[in-house]
Amino acid sequence: MARFEAGMESMVEVFIYETTTLLEQLDQILIKTESNNGFGDEDINEIFRIMHTIKGSSAMMGLSNMSALAHSMEDMFFIIREEKPYILSIGTLYDLVFTASDLLKAEVEIAQDEDYTPADFSEHIEKIESFVAILKEGSETNPEQLLTTSLEDSEIETSTHNSNIISVRVFFDDDSEMENLRSLLLIKKIKDDCLELEYEPSDIETNPDSSRIIVDNGFIIRFKPLNDESFIFKAIEDSVSVKSYEVIEDNLAEALPDYIDLEPTAEEENIAIDIEKSETISNQTKTKVETTKDAESKDDAKEKIDIPKSADQINNLLSKTQGSRGKQNLISVNLNKLDELLDMVGEIVITEAMVTSSADLKGLELDSFHKSARQLRKLTDELQDIVMSIRMVPLSGVFNKMRRVVRDMKVKLNKDVNLVFEGGETEVDKGVIDNLNDPLMHMVRNSMDHGIEDDPQKRIKLGKPEKGTVTLSAYNASGEVIIVVADDGAGIDSERVLEKAKKNGLLTKPESEYTNKEIFNMIMQPGFSTNEQVTEFSGRGVGMDVVRKNIEKIGGTVSVDSKDGVGTSFIVKIPLSLAIVGGIEISVGTSIFTIPINSVKESFKLNQNQLIRDVSGEEMVMIRGKCYPLIRLYEYYGLTPKSTDVFDGMVILVEGGGKLACLLADELIGEQQVVVKPFSPLFNRYNVKQNGMAGCTILGDGSITIILDINNIIHEQ
Amino acid sequence: MNEELYNELVAQFNTDGGEILMFTVDRVLYGVEIQYITEIIGIQPITIVPRVPSYIKGVINIRGKVVPVINVRNRFSIPEIPYDDRTCIIVVELGEIVVGLIVDRVREVITVKPSEISSTPDNNQNSSNQFIRSIIESNDEIKLLLDVRKLVME
Questions:
Q1: Of A453, A443, A442, whose CA–CA distance to A416 is shortest?
Q2: What is the Cα–Cα distance from A221 to A182, expressed in whole angstroms?
Q3: CATH class in words for B3-153
Q4: Chain A partners of B64 at a C-beta cutoff of 8 Å?
Q5: Which of B49, B99, B152 has its CB closest to that of A706?
Q6: Is the whole model's pTM more than 0.90, yes or no?
Q7: Using one digit for the tens of pLDDT, what is the confidence trace for A118-160?
Q8: Whole-number Å distance between alpha carbons of A678 and A695
Q9: Angle (CA) A52 A55 A60, round 5°
Q10: Does any CB of chain B come closer than 8 Å to the CB of residue A703?
Q11: B66 vs A637, A688, A696: nearest CB
């Protein structure tokens, strides 16, 4: 950070957070409007505002190159906003803005580095300026044509005029009778063309007396037209027995909620948390969370505020913004603070166990102590749940980033796909989310590049829609989150995969013994890539094995499923949280190990007739007619057990990565919530993870146990 | 701690001298600069970490931190002896890596003058000598100054 002036350091984080958030927002607007084929006024204003803010804040940070680029963009949107020029090539405009957004994003990322040198944006600025020149010319020659196109998306107003509510007073023919029913018919007729609609008297359906009011005062309709108000006027005119109507001026339009912008979902170092959750925690632990109150006013950007107060403030704002973009009951908190909080809670959980299971208490009868201890246990459990839930972030943020990936691929590959999201509201730990971006991006790219057929005719022949679909879905299942990236493309050609694997020497058993599933999963082995030709997006040799590695790094697994001609799906299973897991303690000799509870299926003592040996002398355990390999942990880790007799020990059936196996341990000690502590970097070069050790944890009595990574133990066999 | 920074610290020690903690392993006197030492503790219950080199005895719990421990005897290929009440763990910190070194006895801290430091003969490559950085001769005693980084990280 050497390059920022003294005194600016505290601002850097805010700047990076704010700019990244704004650029995310920009991308969202661009992608939304690109699919609608045009900007609404509001979008133009929004982009203008974003660029203006970035210009100002980057100038303040002394990043003149970013400021200049943002300035040129601001100019461009100023002209678009003010002169509404006719834009011949909207594609060029999008390319310019997307590129600028990428350049800025890249710049923000590296601005913090020690050896940062400002990138030169002058080339892109020139491009923008020449485009602006064309725009200006265009606006002089075609002053009447507007850029704004009619949009189907109901949330985008087409013009400022239309966004006002119009009030109309309708009178019916003098002796038409049943005015209330006629009014009702009229409302039904225009309902579909209105965004908002209300009328007076409002009880025409139920109150026969309303007829009289209509005769006296006329029937008043207030509406916000969907497209053009003239449609609605026409509809009123054409209605049977309408005598006359008049447009009345009232100040209802002013009562329309002002759009109040709150920072949306947080990214980068900050995390948005639900006020409700943090309120609960502030009640329970009296924790004050320092919040970044208003990223825009930098001077007092970081100040401590009481959460209930900020909640009130936000609620006030919310009540004003009803009807505008929702989901704004949020504050931003530095992620480091949440990490610290989680660590602290982890320590409390351990200490609590340390106190209640203290050796000093053995043999004592302490009724009230145990009662209080139970109460404490309950509270620490709740505290832990709340802290974990604060760290939970919905997947929709990561999903939305994929829109951009798809958009870029669309342009480069000239292949159009629908991107469908399901279950974006599923929440996972922030630490997990941060590591999901790259693997997901790779999988989406892979689906678009290799999954969806190059030739749309092929799809039509198979009776599939011309346009391919990539579906991103997420859901919870037994302590895990499952994310599926599915395409409806050609599917994986298993013969080609097998051939390729053979060529690359990846086969470990005769070809005929491979199941389809095993073959599909081969594409995630290092050094495998079926595409003969390297494209820009995938097939660079890094391939899917990187996806697998990244997912495994966060304790998850990936598998592939595919059906010829129907499509391929990547199934990612990740743990809900990284930090605290339920574990079962087992002993092997003098060592104690912890098995994550979601890997454990059952534990039991072995019967004589359950143990069988296969031809090569491998031990198997028969459970309810199924055979599972037996792994003697003392053998696996070279330890000295209490007894080498299988029937003395405890057998634990575990599952990892879709496979089951039995572990043999000496004894089952108990079950406990444990805080995962990573191994010292000293162990990095010994591949402890591959050797089935996920981390360690400190138990209540201060002793350390090693948490087993069942997945790796099973797969090493 | 990267090599560059470590070499800088070594060069500084060679020119300015400094304080070293002395300890014995198999009755031989060794020294380690106190700038790397965070604390000295008695022997602790050690949790075995399987499938790592045998000189890494496992991990210990130092106030909630999980710290790996190295037995210097194993590192020097000297036969192990049972731990007793004078066995010590010297906790050293090298950048992000914190490690405990198990030694037989800990002696006092002495100040070393630059003139007392001499380099080791290069031709010695046997297992205990490769971790010796320099020889210190003071008060008619020979002390072997450990190359901590090499001992821990190579």
A1: A453
A2: 13
A3: mainly beta
A4: 347, 350, 698
A5: B49
A6: no
A7: 778 888 888 888 888 877 776 554 444 444 433 333 333 333 3
A8: 5
A9: 130
A10: yes
A11: A696
Q: Do A166 and A222 form a contact (C-beta atoms < 8 A)?
A: yes
Q: What is the predicted pLDDT for the residue at A260? A: 39
Question: Is the pLDDT higher at A240 or at A434?
Answer: A434
The tens digit of pLDDT for each residue in A627-641 reads 999 999 999 998 999
Task: Round to whole Å and give the CA distance between A172 and A166.
Answer: 19
Domain that holds residue A448: 394-575
As given in the structure block, the two tokens for residue A337 are 């603070």
Residue A308 belongs to a domain: yes
Q: Per the structure block, which two tokens stand in for A680?
A: 């010292």
> Residue holding tokens 């499938």?
B51
* Token output for A27: 């991308």
| Residue B128, phi then psi, degrees to nearest 5 | -85, -30
ipTM confidence: 0.90
Spell out which residues of chain B touch residue A677, defining contact as CB-CB under 8 Å. Answer: 66
* A4 assigned to some structural domain: no
User: Does some domain include residue A341?
Assistant: yes
Q: Which residue has the tokens 């949009």?
A: A151
- Residue A275's Cβ-count burial label (10 Å; 0-12, 13-18, 19+) is buried
CATH of the domain at A192: 3.30.70.1110
Measured distance CA(A500)–CA(A523) in Å, rounded:
10
Structure tokens at A200: 């007076």
- Is residue A589 within 8 A of residue A642, CB to CB? The reply is yes
CA–CA distance, A547 with A172 (Å, rounded to integer) = 69
What is the 8-class DSSP label of residue A491?
A: -
For A236-253, what is the mean pLDDT?
Answer: 67
The bridge status of strand B132-138 relative to strand B117-119 is antiparallel
